Amino acid sequence: MDCDERYVKDLAADDQTCNICGKMGRCIRLNAEWFSDYPYVECNLLPSRVEDDDDLDEYGNVKDELVGEEPEPFYGCLTCLSEGRFNFVHETAAGFITRDTIPNLGITKEIIDGLTRTPHYRTRRGNDYRWHCDDYMSYRGQWQPIDFIRAAKNGDGKALFSKIRSESEPGAFRYYTDNDFPDNPTDRAYWSSAVHTFVCRHCGYICAYVELD
Ligand SMILES: [Zn+2]
Ligand SMILES: [Zn+2]
Q1: Where are the alpha helices (DSSP H) in 117-156?
Q2: How far is the CA of 200 from the centre of ligand 2 (A)?
Q3: What is the pLDDT of residue 49?
Q4: Interval between CA 19 and ligand 1 midpoint (Å)
Q5: Which domain holds residue 60?
Q6: Are residues 20 and 109 in the same domain?
Q7: Domain final position from 109, 129, 149
Q8: 119 plus 158 within the same structural domain
Q9: Which helix (DSSP H) or strand (DSSP E) does residue 159 occupy?
Q10: Alpha-carbon span 120 to 90, nearest angstrom
Q11: How confident is the prediction for the chain on average, in pLDDT?
């Protein structure tokens, strides 16, 4: 698992009984509302969202009236995740990575194991793990101005923000300009939109994108 500990704490805060190993521990809920796409969690013990054929419409899709229904919680603990008893499917610039991905020159077994044992981050859009130096980047959470200041080697968070913004693909900072970086930020919750940030695990390169409310 490679992502910010603060973020994992947020995802797996409560002690719960793991539905996979039966032990009490820090667990991630695998079928909560933000994981409504069950196929993105790989665990053969995870109960199906579909009880029987009556739940499907004529096209084989889950009937509209059942979509969004709150299922019984199903938890997987961080130990089971680190040992690969359940996995996450991740979308990356190198394609979808699942536990069944066959290692090749570009994607080593270490990358497959590391990424599929890393949880999704909270987002309403696709869970797109950024890629750099032929490897997945480490998700560092939703940054506020103060985080850019802490990450800047010379403390100039505004310059770092401006650099990341100018290097990003078009649209990553829609409606955000350099002027959206406050002069003297003290309030951690300055931006209301999520600024999802990743750091390269090899060269330290930082990239980010804004998810508008
Ligand atoms: Zn467990
Ligand atoms: Zn890099």
Answers
A1: 145-151
A2: 5
A3: 64
A4: 7
A5: 5-129
A6: yes
A7: 129
A8: no
A9: helix 157-167
A10: 8
A11: 85
